[in-house]
Design brief:
0% strand, Membrane_Transporter-Flippase, transmembrane, xenobiotic transmembrane transporter activity, transport, membrane
């Protein structure tokens, strides 16, 4: 089989390849984040701060599900990129088959366990009795949505592994528009549709995810019908699963640490009442928006790095690092500036209550400065991940969240809620410093040409 499918990222201009790869991811990620942003806008304006609070306390659990989706599928993407760069299509097919087979098992376990444990998890997060019924019903629907979420992540990771980022974007555009239109109809009950309140927002998101997944499946089957990126059967092959686990488990733990960090922060914020938790929930939606350009570039640098290693061209990595940072600067700088200087305008888009807006203003003025660190550490983390060293990005996150953010927030929250915001900014800076140190020390280069032997 000749190399007639996908996009070879080991040839041509590095900045051009980065932009072509990362831009659809950026747009798609912004639109994916728009799922929750749209929910928050409708919920905040139609249902009030209790409903916003219910969404906010459910968010750490949702982040945990995202961590699992992202960790497992990141491993798939890295392994596919290396196999694709090396033109090893037997290995590529084996990775695809095992990834789909693992997906079925993971989805069953998460949905079954999640529905059983939803209320205990919310209690653990300190959810107040006033919003518990709302939060539990909303969370249960979000947990059911895990199936579509995981499949959509897996489809995107396979396509991105071969350099195809445009189709995941198109699927996301369609599903986001569907979500935006359906949200208010199900929340308020328009025409024959029932009035579902907060549950309507969750159901709209669920249906939108199903739409994106189905569209992706149809495209991949028709476009790549005779290529090794479609599953050809159920397969649980030990060597391949271990290779996926070796890369995916640290990434999952890393993102779980982010979720845990957010959950513990929620506990500290809860001390300041429902107004504070509503403001924090909205501000974290903004965090997600700001991170989107940096995450897109991280995925781009990881893909270019993995394909370059697979093709035996590691000399390109230094240039990938340089251009990743250069491209990141203007977008993140503009967003950070807007958050610091126009926080009231931004918060007013999401909620009407003056007390919630004031807490959010304090958050954005402080944490907005820390967004500038995203310019750098997402790029260096992308290269480290692309080289298959996901264990070390996990360690970097552990230090930042568990040894810096949580202890500092515990101490500084005794002074004021702004102490929590300062702890978050300091943890961003620690992440950047540690990531750069590991990158420049060059230890991530060790064993980068050791392609896993997945074909017996």
């Amino acid at each position: 089989m000749n190399n007639q499918f996908g996009k070879d990222l080991t040839t041509g201009s590095i900045p051009k390849n980065l932009i072509k790869f990362a831009l659809p991811i950026l747009i798609g990620n912004l639109l994916s984040t728009a799922y929750s942003i749209i929910d928050t806008i409708w919920v905040g304006n139609m249902l009030g701060k209790e409903a916003v609070g219910a969404v906010a306390v459910s968010f750490p659990i949702f982040l945990g599900m995202i961590a699992l989706c992202s960790g497992a599928t990141l491993a798939t993407s890295i392994l596919i990129s290396k196999a694709y760069g090396a033109k090893d299509y037997d290995t590529l097919q084996k990775i695809v088959n095992n990834s789909w087979s693992m997906a079925g098992v993971i989805i069953f376990v998460v949905i079954t366990g999640g529905l059983f444990l939803s209320e205990p998890m919310l209690k653990l997060l300190g959810t107040s009795a006033e919003i518990m019924p709302l939060a539990k019903e909303y969370l249960n629907i979000i947990i059911i949505n895990f199936a579509g979420l995981y499949f959509s992540y897996l489809l995107s990771s396979i396509l991105r592994g071969i350099g195809d980022t445009m189709i995941p974007l198109i699927c996301t555009i369609i599903s986001t528009c569907f979500n935006a239109a359906l949200d208010p109809l199900l929340i308020m009950g328009v025409g024959p549709l029932p009035r579902l309140g907060l549950n309507g927002a969750a159901i709209a998101t669920l249906l939108s995810t199903v739409v994106a997944t189905i569209l992706g499946l149809i495209y991949m089957y028709r476009k790549y019908k005779k290529r090794p990126i479609n599953p050809t059967g159920i397969c649980f092959e030990r060597t391949t699963i271990l290779a996926i686990g070796k890369l995916g488990l640290p990434s999952f733990i890393q993102q779980m640490l982010v979720s845990i960090g957010y959950a513990v922060t929620i506990i500290f914020v809860n001390r300041f009442g429902d107004t504070a938790i509503a403001a924090f929930g909205i501000a974290n939606k903004l965090d997600a928006i700001v991170a989107m350009p940096a995450i897109a570039m991280m995925m781009g640098t990881a893909a270019l790095t993995a394909q370059s290693i697979g093709a035996g061209e590691p000399e390109r990595i230094k240039t990938i690092f340089k251009w990743g940072i250069i491209i990141n600067v203007p977008i993140i700088l503009i967003i950070s500036t807007a958050c610091v200087f126009f926080p009231e305008t931004i918060m007013s888009l999401f909620v009407k209550e003056t007390d919630v807006i004031q807490v959010g203003i304090g958050y954005l003025k402080i944490v907005g400065v820390g967004y500038l660190t995203y310019i750098v550490f997402y790029v260096s983390n992308g290269i480290i991940n692309g080289a298959g060293q996901t264990f070390f990005t996990m360690i970097i996150s552990f230090i930042s969240l568990c040894l810096v953010r949580i202890p500092l927030a515990a101490v500084l929250s005794n002074i004021s809620i702004r102490g929590i915001w300062y702890a978050i900014v300091i943890s961003f800076a620690v992440t950047m410093i540690n990531s750069l140190l590991y990158y420049f020390l060059g230890r991530w280069r060790k064993g980068i040409f050791e392609q896993p032997k997945l074909v017996n």
